[in-house]
Design goal:
With about 400 residues, the protein is an alpha/beta fold. The protein contains twelve helices and 13 strands. One of its GO terms (biological process) is DNA catabolic process.
Length: about 400
């Protein structure tokens, strides 16, 4: 046994490589599923080299097998094929490389492929990626449409020609890539990320013509489905014919039956929109005309009323009313003034009757002392005191002389 490694006693590279090979060798034979990404037959060599790619992750591993295994009758091994491989993991010490040494290769049948796609569909549906509430509505007339399709393909022509014929102002942001084969899903994902990052792109169309179930497998790729679900831009899928259904059709915001149908869905038809606008304009014109005519008839009916046909009639009637009101007001004022005069005369008479001057007129006199105090009793004044006597005709100054008083 090899002693544990340490800074003082490190292992040489050969020891590490040998131990790695031993650990990998303990795994034994395993069954591996993948997609043939690269296949190489070198002349008449007995060994066939191929690269097996993971269907979901961006990961691959080299595989070697005997020519008899790769050319087994009934097995049509080609790039893009889904296969099951029974192999033993192998670590080549001299180069430090890992590979699988296959002893049996089986093609994955159509029924098994469909079953696996169904399992993936159920898994993604359980996560809510296919929920209707996630679907977004398409813009009415997008200025820029992103298109992901094969270069110079029939699907590309159908989308571009149909859309431009329906709405000539539409512009396209193209991403041409492989839509079939081992790299198709990764290429489409790259196009989605590129177009989704472009703020001018308002809707993305993923288009591909018809094909077999194997040809359309990239559009049931789990990674591609998740990439579409993560897009902020609405996505329209038009993959295959109307009867073909892939997983991207479930997650897309709109599923079109064909690329031509996708063009019909993303842009309106200019002639139809013109007819719609003309119809709305005619309807608005009719409503406005009808409204104006109604107002004209109402105005004519108002003008024919007596009050507006002969406005002076109102003035004549009102003049009589004003004259009557003036007469009534004058009579009321005169009556009130006469009543006030009578009241004033009565008040004057009462004041005159109560006035001290009237008493003086009757021969009475008012006697006051020098300080103005009234004299009411002769005993209040002293002999020789000067007094003032007020009579009706004026005032007299007198002096008290008690010597002349008679007993």
């Amino acid at each position: 046994m090899t002693a544990p490694s340490s800074p003082e006693a490190p292992w040489p590279v050969r020891t590490v490589a040998r131990k790695v090979a031993e650990w990998i060798g303990r795994l034994g034979e395993v069954w591996v599923e993948g997609q043939v990404a690269q296949l190489s037959r070198r002349g008449n060599a007995a060994t066939v080299f191929l690269t097996l790619r993971d269907p979901v992750a961006d990961l691959s591993v080299p595989v070697t097998c005997h020519r008899d295994v790769a050319d087994r009758p009934g097995l049509e091994l080609s790039e893009g094929a889904r296969v099951l491989v029974r192999a033993r993991p192998d670590y080549y010490v001299a180069r430090g490389s890992f590979s699988l040494r296959a002893t049996e290769i089986r093609a994955v049948g159509l029924g098994e492929l469909l079953a696996r796609i169904e399992r993936i569909r159920q898994l993604l549906a359980a996560e809510g990626l296919f929920d209707v509430v996630r679907k977004r509505s398409l813009p009415f007339a997008p200025a820029v449409v992103g298109v992901i399709t094969g270069r110079d393909s029939a699907a590309e022509r159908d989308v571009l020609v149909t859309a431009r014929r329906r709405w000539p102002a539409v512009r396209f942001a193209m991403h041409n890539c492989a839509v079939q084969g081992p790299q198709a899903a990764a290429n489409v994902i790259e196009g989605l990320r590129k177009l989704d990052a472009d703020v001018s792109v308002e809707v993305i169309v993923v288009a591909r013509g018809g094909g077999s179930v194997e040809d359309l497998l990239p559009f049931s790729d789990e990674g591609l489905v998740r990439a579409i679900a993560a897009c902020r831009t609405p996505v329209v899928t038009a993959v295959g014919h109307e009867t073909d259904t892939t997983l991207v059709d479930h997650v897309a915001d709109v599923r079109a039956a064909t690329p031509t149908d996708a063009a019909h869905r993303i842009v309106p038809e200019i002639g139809e929109q013109r007819r719609l606008v003309e119809g709305l304009r005619a309807r608005a014109r009719h409503l406005i005309t009808t409204r104006v005519e109604q107002q004209e008839r109402w105005l004519e009916s108002v003008r024919t009323r007596p009050v507006l046909a002969n406005p002076e009639r109102l003035l004549h009637g009102r003049a009589d009313d004003v004259a009557q009101l003036r007469t009534r007001a004058r009579r009321t004022v005169v009556h009130r003034v006469e009543g006030a005069e009578r009241d004033l005369e009565h008040a004057r008479a009462r004041v005159a009757a109560l006035s001290p001057a009237a008493t003086l007129d009757r021969g009475y006199a008012v006697v006051q002392r020098a300080d103005g105090a009234l004299v009411r009793d002769p005993a209040e004044v002293a002999d020789g005191e000067r007094l003032r006597v007020r009579v009706s005709g004026g005032r007299l100054d007198v002096r008290v002389d008690r010597e002349d008083e008679e007993p």
